[in-house]
Design goal:
The protein is built from 9 helices and 8 strands. With about 280 residues, the chain is of the alpha/beta class.
Length: about 280
Amino acid sequence: MPATETAFVLGGGGVLGACEVGMLKALLEHGIRPDLVVGTSIGALNGAFVAADPRPETATRLASLWRDMVAGDVFSGSLLRRAGTLAKTRTHLHPFGPLRSLLRESLPVERIEDLEVPFQCVAASIERAAEHWFTEGPLADAVLASCAVPGLLAPVRIGDEHFMDGGLVHSIPVGRAVALGATTVYVLQVGRVEQPLVAPRRPWEVGLVAFEIARRHRFATDMASIPDGVTVHVLPVGEEPPRYDSRAALRYRDLSSVGSRVDRAYDATAAYLADIA
């Protein structure tokens, strides 16, 4: 891998990942170009595009892709249809075919090696119970594996392994960027780590809060271990972090606020970058 100085780290967060599009637009308009891009889950999707073409126009194309997801059928289907999928598979609510088709049609290159900027994304290997970093091979399959949210999508089989969402093992992979030699890291996160947690009070909240603790702990550990000489910028989402609401995870199909999230994150990140210039 070529010398790495500036890394973009894009975390997971489902529909909240729209704010990363605004952050990317601000970064690229300020002339900040990555030497490395690492991503998790929806951050893997956003990161693949900027790694392919790190120009401001890419953010515009990404915004269009998000609009396609709003209008498309990636997570569409009536309650009856979703219940039917769950009854048939016993493991997930949606087939991953629509998302795979969208990725294959929209991603500008077929293989990770063909991207303009070095790119890696992470997924969780079921068989090895470990993180797996995709550094080569089919790009759409790697991104799909990183986005395979448990319960929503089926695990993605690649070779002899099955993979689930990268957020299970590395939700905001700052440590990976530092390990690969980055000295300036821009963290594109969705604001969830800033939301105060409360003890679960409903059955479905138990697992969600437990997962949130695990993902935040890994990020906090990485941030506490940043070595001297490395600068990390955690970019702002542009809104005050509300109290953590576990029900938000159940509203994963609500893409109505995509546009406003992009705009708020762009304005906040542009202001942040102007302040540190």
